[in-house]
Amino acid sequence: MTTIHNLGFPRIGAQRELKRAVEAYWAGQSTQEELEATGRELRARHWKMQADAGLAFVPVGDFAWYDHILEWTTLLGAVPARFAQRDDRPVTLDTLFRMGRGRAPTGTPAAACEMTKWFDTNYHYIVPELTPNQTYRLARTALFDQVREAQALGYAVKPVIPGPLTWLWLGKGDAYVAGAGDEAKLALLDALLPVYAEVLDRLARLGVAWVQVDEPILALDLPAAWRAAYGRVYADLAKAPVKLLLATYFDGLQDNLGTAAALPVAGLHVDLVRAPEQLADVAAALRDDQVLSAGVINGRNIWRTDLDAALHTLAPVHAQLGDRLWLAPSCSLLHVPVDLAFETELDAELKSWLSFAAQKLDELNVLGQALGGAADAADATVREALATQRAALQVRARSPRIHNPAVAARLAGSTHVKLEREPFGERIVRQQARLNLPAYPTTTIGSFPQTQEIRALRRDWKAGALSDSAYETAIRKEIEAVIRFQERIGLDVLVHGEPERNDMVEYFGELLAGFAFTRNGWVQSYGSRCVKPPVIFGDVARPAPITVGWSAYAQSLTDKPVKGMLTGPVTILQWSFVRDDQPRAETCRQLALALRDEVVDLEGAGIRVIQIDEPAIREGLPLRRADWQAYLDWAVDCFRLSTSGVRGDTQIHTHMCYSEFNDIIESIGAMDADVITIETSRSNMDLLKAFEDYRYPNDIGPGVYDIHTPNVPEVGWMVDLMRKAAARLPRERLWVNPDCGLKTRAWPETEASLVSMVQAARALRETA
Ligand code: GLN
Ligand code: ZN
Predict the structure, then answer these.
(1) Of 179, 189, 424, 542, which is least packed with CB atoms within 10 Å of its CB?
(2) 404 close to 541: Cβ distance less than 8 angstroms
């Protein structure tokens, strides 16, 4: 049988056992020993699943209490000074937790390390903090302990570690500002490599044959200095008495193939799901003694693999490489839920189209056996597995649940839909005449505190304990309270507060056709936080208006404009598992058309201002710059498709909450929203520079206070921030609003903060 292996397994547990265990430990409800025991159980369970599926080795080092990069950073002893780590002591679990979240049951609280998105996934890693002349040492032994743990259970192991260049690339520090930081970062290699040598040496002494070294940055556009560093770094690592499997994923090697293929490593893993076209080139570039690990099972999505297609692709390479061809998922399975077996409420047909981590291991097994020749020979189970697979895919391909001719026809016709609205200069005049807003108008981003009572209402209603009408009455009461509150404190453009929404994507998915929801489809987002992305499995359509009733009710209570509130097509796409049988752009267009109807219906119901949130536009950017424009073009078109159905005097807002608008400012301009509200308060309005340089023409509401903390902002401080904004942009274009929605806040600080914010706006109007 062909060698099969795995790059990493989800550590959180099928029932989020790890989340519960760490949270109980943080809360002082369990001991460290109990926590360790849960970790051991989960590792043992996951190793067993992988060994049972016939994997040649089980991965070790993919387990993490909080984040695998943080595990590695602490192993290297790279602990920032504020955590008061002594150089001669091991880094404890509590210090690791303090770095991840600022607090732990022991140790002094300190500011947590920054967290940021792991490449183009929704997983967030803890950013290593680099300092000039930083020293490294082996400061934690968890990796070695876990190797022994797996060996004691009888498994062959393959440790998985982040490569030195990827670890440095991911790191940040004052001395490593963009552009000037490369050489300085690379200078840290001299201190770093001896620790890597020590780690590899110790692993060898534990009897380890193969070590997987993850270098996903080889799938990025790399500056020359980084590419050049690879040769020397791997010449050094290759001195260790182990075989190195260099793992790349999330995109193709492209211009880095020459670099990767020249390294003295024993094997190379490539992602053939994201970049199938690289297979022949990579196979041709390998030396005779090197292994090619083909990542053919999608580690980023939840669809059953087309094994026939995979076999077809692999056959010639198998003929060429024989045993030197290994099979694996495209990347770590961290990004998919654990086991479909827990989905008791999905219908059998839909389930037969899906594959979670456990099922992906089985697919790998079948593929490995089939490639080894078992398919034509006697092995009936393999033949049967392939046949089952084929049948499921055939049913899926033709299913009327997926293909809705009305959606297809509408999509085909949508190329003629006009995406342009009348010029902003004309629109804004008409909008102002209709809305009659003061200078520096105030508004909020949409949600108001999601109190325990609101959550309980929804829970009871979903459980059937509360009737539809009782639920509606209760939500209406909530909306009325929010409207009265906003009127009382003097906000200008009101919102209904989103009390009916559990989540900004799930809510829309539940009311659109083409979506399915799992019960246990959890994927780690960061630390103990998991998300359960909806599954877009079929053509998207809007069977009935979604938000119109709530918004119209809210508007009926007041003369002030109430903003309709929608989640944009790109964000819904980005935060879901998306079907793989058509391009993402097409699914996004279907979403855009459904939202377009909602926007038009809102206008028809008398809503004068409509906000379409697109916080995920930027995170959808492909990893390679060459692919950016194509993505931005369809993403912007989708936004415009959803918004261009309304009159010029209907005001369209959008909201984005992330930093860094520089590289995409032209596309933000092309979205042509009348008003964009953005997260800026923590950057001291520096983020507006991109808008200033671009001479962004439309209205903009730079957030004046951070909603991530309960701190109440001072009036003077917000006035100052707005003055900074006015120094960069015309004051007639400015709005005053918080950074983001208020759903995670409590009422007392919400009220105090917004009262101050309104005062700040009044002060600005008077002094202007
Ligand atoms: N309208 C949403 C809210 O206020 C926006 C959330 C977001 O930007 N993530 O909650
Ligand atoms: Zn936001």
Answers:
(1) 179
(2) yes
Ligand 1 atom closest to the CA of 611, numbered from 1 = 1
Helix (H, G, I), strand (E, B) or coil at 459: helix
Does ligand 1 lie within 6 Å of residue 450's CB atom?
no
Categorize the per-residue pLDDT at 752 as very low, low, confident or very high, splitting at 50, 70 and 90.
very high
Contacts of 186 (CB under 8 A, 6+ apart): 168, 225, 226, 229
Burial of 593 (0-12, 13-18, 19+ CB in 10 A): buried
All domains of the chain in start order, with CATH: 63-203+217-232 (3.20.20.210), 405-450+482-767 (3.20.20.210)
Residue 95, both tokens: 């210090």
Residue-wise pLDDT for 580-595, tens only, equals 999 999 999 999 999 9
760 vs 714: CA distance, rounded Å:
9
**Ramachandran area for residue 520 (φ above 0: left; ψ -120 to 50: alpha; else beta):** alpha
Total Cβ atoms within 10 A of residue 741: 25
Sheet strand arrangement including 535-541: 513-516, 535-541, 577-578
Q: For residue 613, how far is its CA from the centre of ligand 1 (angstroms)? A: 7
Q: What is the pTM of this model?
A: 0.95
Q: Is 68 part of the annotated catalytic residue set?
A: no
Residue 705 has pLDDT above 90, yes or no: yes
The response to whether residue 446 sits with its C-beta less than 6 Å from ligand 1 reads yes
What ipTM, to 2 d.p.?
0.99
> Cα–Cα distance between 750 and 642 in angstroms, integer?
31
The CB of 566 under 6 Å from ligand 1? The reply is: no
Task: Supply the pLDDT for residue 681.
Answer: 87
Q: Which atom of ligand 1 is nearest to the CA of 740?
A: 8
